[in-house]
Amino acid sequence: MIRYAKPATLDQALTLLGETSWRVLAGSTDFYPAQGNRPIRENILDINGIAALRGVTETDTHWLIGARTTWSDIIQQPLPAAFDALKQAAREVGSPQIQNVATIAGNLCNASPAADGVPALLTLDAEVELRSQASSRHLPLSAFVLGNRRTARKPNELVTAIRVSKASATGTSAFVKLGARRYLVISIAMAAARLIIDDGIVQQAAIAVGACSAVATRLPDLERMLVGRPADRQLADIANIAPMPQLSPIDDVRGSAGYRLEAAHRIVARAIDSAAGLPHQTEVAA
């Protein structure tokens, strides 16, 4: 018999997860479209009743984004400029109606290569908090998303929060997404950039690209090339020619591998320009 449970507390949810296998649902904006007309054959654990899992809180050392926090919550939350890329990504998640219910943890656990939230969170060195009845642990986001639709979450664990160290929540950031149309579209390519600029010189750089590999990824070679450079137009020029060996785009109905790779260079350049406070000059046509 298929079970449905809607616990009111985190402890109740963790107890249930320790008993048997469950499909965890929060916003359900990925689950139901994928399910279609097929009958549900999994036990459903609906965590929408757990108020403690929603919201953004600040501690002495971290920003904590609860697993059930929606994209609309993130858009409306006053956060440092380092989170601007995440807010911009939040505005690209479907429509406002979807943003009102879709959750940040659901976006990560669905583990799509085109998950809009991942590149911005990678530039923030975000960690995923996982809890079970017996223990809790923190994984870098880069170690949590393992591949297309695969994560490091164990069956008895629940993602409870996304953690961003205050040391990483510094600088300015920007997000750029390329799709076949403006709204309600899966990315062809997307990029996030976070820069720390002091006295006109790039002191630190964090650059990530999504939808151009099985898992969204940072670009450490480019990051190193940007550090020590003046925060001017040359940053975008560097991005346009920089090697990006971490990317392995595919051909599909949204674009060819070659187009995606070219687009990645262009949108990275645009994200860097925006993070540096420079007006856009590089355009990409879908």
From TrEMBL:
SMART domains found in the cross-reference section = CO_deh_flav_C (SM01092)
Occurrences of domain FAD-binding PCMH-type (ranges): 1-169
The GO terms this record gives for MF are: FAD binding; oxidoreductase activity
Pfam families reported in the protein's UniProt record: CO_deh_flav_C (PF03450), FAD_binding_5 (PF00941)
Q: Which UniProt keywords apply?
A: FAD, Flavoprotein, Oxidoreductase
Has UniProt tagged this entry with the keyword Flavoprotein?
yes
Q: What is this protein called?
A: Xanthine dehydrogenase
Task: Give the organism, scientific name.
Answer: Mesorhizobium hungaricum
